[in-house]
Amino acid sequence: MPEPQIAHGWLLLGAMLACAAGMAWLALAMDVHARQVWGRGLAPAMAKGLRVLGALALAAGLWLCLLADHPTMAVLVWVMALAVGALAVALLLAWRARWLRALAPWVRRAA
Amino acid sequence: MFHSFRQAMAWLHTWFGLVLGFVLMAAFFFGALSVFDREIDRWAIPATRFEPQPMPSFEKVLRPAFERLQPPPEMVEAMRPRVDGPMPERFDRIAYWSAYTTHRDPVLAIYAGWEVPGARNPDEQLYAVGTIDPRDGTPLPDDRLKIGSGFFFPLHYGLTLDWKNLGIWIVGFSALVMLAALVSGVVMHRKLFRELFTFRPGKARLRSALDLHNLTGVVALPFHFFFAFTGLVIFSATYYFPLGHTQLHELHELHEQHEAAALGLPHGRSGVPAGLANVDAMVGEAQRRWEARGMAGDVGFLVLQHVGDANGYVSVYRAGTDRIALVGQGIHFKADTGALLREDPPATPVARVAEFLTGLHLQHFRHWLLRWLYVFGGLMGAVCIATGFVFFVEKRKRQHARVGSQGVRIVDALAVTTVTGMVLAALGILVANRLLPEALPGRGDWERFAFWGTWALALVHAGWRSAPVARGLPNPAWREQCWAIAVLALAAAVLNWITTGDHLLRTLAAGYWPVAGLDLALLAVAAIAAAAGHRLGRRAEAAARIGAHGGEAAHA
C-alpha cells in the first residue's frame, strides 16, 4: 500500500476516535450519565471541564477530517463520525458504563 | 381536534410514519445495500470478479466495441410503425457513443444512440447498451442480473414499480413525509439533548423500544434529513418537474440551440460527413489541462456526439473520485480535427451546491470509510423505523386485546414482513443467484421471482403466526424469521464458496474485498440474527413460565 493511503487511514482513525471520545466526555458531563459511570454526580466545575474537553475533541475530529480529505468530503465524514460516536457512547453507557471511567481517570468514584 | 401543537405533531408522526414507514424501510434498507451495489454485482456475476479498470484506450478498445453495437432487433421492430419509409439494415447515423466508468467498475458499460431516417418525431432515437471487458474489449454477456446496481438500487429509489414511474412517486412522497416525520419527531421529543445518549435496554419493552427509536433517529438526524432531502432534489429535477420536456418543449429546444451557440458547441448534425481525429490524443490533452488546474484525474465519462458528421465533437469528463460532486470539468474537442472547442468553466456557487447535494447522495467518490458510514446511517434509519413499529404495537397491544381488536395484529404481521421479511427476501435472491443453473434462460427473472417469492412467504408466515398478538403476546414469527435469516445468510456465503471456489480465506488472502466484504457481511448478519433469535426465544420461554404460573394461580 502506498504511503499516502496509510497516512490517510491514520488520520481518519484519529478523527473517528476523537469524535467518539468527544461524545463520551459530553455524555460524562451530564449528571445522569456521571451517576451511571461513577455512581455519583460531578461538581459543576468538573462537569464544565469535561464539556469543554468534549467540544475540543469534536473540533479536533473535524480538523483531522479536513487534513485527510477535500473539505466537501471531510464535513460528511465528520458528521457521520459524530453519529457513530454518539451511538457507541449510548451503547457503552447501557451495557459497559464503567469502561468510560478510563476517559476521565482523575474523577474519583463514589465511596 | 388537537389540544396542542405537540399533540397534532404526534398524530402526524404516528400515522404517516406507520403508513409510509413500510416504504421508507425499503428505501433505507436497499439504499444501504446500494452503497455497495457494484460489489454485490461482482458477487452475483462471478465472471466479472476482477480489479476495477480505468477508461480504456478509445482507438484500441472502445472504437471496435462501439462499431459492433447496433440497436436490438425488437427495439427496431417496435419503432417501425413510427417511421416513414423502410428501416435501414444497418444504423450509421450515430447520435452519440459514450462510455462511463467509476473506480469500482471492472467491466465497462458502453452506450450508443442512433438517429432514424424518416422518424416522424425526429427526437426519437434508437439506442443500445453493451458491456465489455475494458482490458481487451471482449463483449460480455449482458443478460446477467446485476443484483446490486440492477435490482437493489432500483428497489431503493422506485420499488421497481416502473408503471408510470409510480414507485418513484411513492418513494418521493415518502421522503417528503419523512422530512415531516423528522420535524414532528423533534417537536415531540421533549429532551432531544438531555436524552441524546439514553438507551435503557433493561426497562419495559415500550420504554426501551422508544429509547432506541429516539437514539437511532437523533444521532443520525443529519443523515436522515440530508438523504431524504437530496433524494427529493434528485427526483424533482428529473421526474417531478420535467417542465423543459413537457409544457415548455419548444422553448426548451430553442434554449438548447442558444446554449449550444453560446458554448461554441454544435447543436445538431450538419449533414456533411467528416472523419474522426485521434480521440486518445484528445483524452490526453484533457488530462493535461486538468493537471494544469491542479486537479489531475481519471476520465469518468467520454461522449462522442454526431460521430462521422462535421458537427461532431468529443467531450471528456473527469471522474469525481476525490470530491463529493459527480463527474465534471468537461473539456470538448472538435471530432474531425481534435481542436479544443471549449473548457467548462468552474461551476457557479449555486451549481456547486446542487452538485454537492446530488453527489452526496449518489456517492461516486472514492472513500471506503464514508461508504461504510453511509451503510451505518441507512441501517440506523431502518432500526429507527423498525422500533417505531414495535413501539406502535407495544403501546396498543393490551388495549386491543381487551376490546378484541385485530388492528395491532395486522400491523405487527406487516412489521415482521418489512423488517425480517425484507432481509429474507434479499438473502433469497442471493441464494437463488448461486443455486440456479448458469445457462437457465431468463435467469434474472427467476432470481427476481425468488426475491418476491421469499418475501411473500415471509408475509404469509407472519400472518399465520400472528394470533398471539391479538391476546397481547409477541408474534413468534419474529423469532422464527430471525433463525431463517441466520440459515439463509450462512447458506449464501457457503454456496458462494461451493459454486465459485472463492471462499473467505482465498478472497481475504487476495485482498479481493468486493466478494470478501459481502461474505463477511453475510456471516455477520447470520451471527446477529442467531443472537436475536436466541434472545427472543429465551424471553418467550420466560414469558411462557410466568404465563403458566399465572394460569395455575388463577385456577387455584
Secondary-structure blueprint of this entry?
The complex is a heterodimer of chains A (111) and B (556).
Chain A: H1 3-28, H2 31-38, H3 44-68, H4 71-95
Helix pairs in contact in A: 1-3, 1-4, 3-4
Chain B: H1 5-34, H2 37-44, H3 58-68, H4 73-79, E1 94-100, E2 108-115, E3 125-132, H5 147-158, H6 166-188, H7 205-219, H8 221-240, H9 249-263, H10 279-292, E4 299-305, E5 313-318, E6 328-334, E7 340-343, H11 349-362, H12 368-403, H13 407-435, H14 443-464, H15 467-470, H16 476-500, H17 504-510, H18 513-555
Antiparallel strand pairs in B: 1-2, 1-4, 2-3, 4-5, 5-6, 6-7
Helix pairs in contact in B: 1-5, 1-6, 1-12, 1-13, 2-5, 2-18, 6-8, 7-12, 8-11, 12-13, 13-14, 13-16, 14-16, 16-18
Describe what this molecule looks like in 3D.
The complex is a heterodimer of chains A (111) and B (556). Chain A is built from four helices and no strands. By secondary structure, chain A is an all-alpha fold. Chain A has one domain. In chain A, α1 crosses α4 and α3 packs across α4. Chain B contains 18 helices and seven strands. With 556 residues, chain B is α+β, with helices and mostly antiparallel strands. Among the domains of chain B are: 191 residues, no CATH class; 143 residues, no CATH class. In chain B, strands 3-2-1-4-5-6-7 form a seven-stranded antiparallel beta sheet. Chain B is 60% helix and 8% strand. Classes of the chains: A mainly alpha (111), B alpha+beta (556).
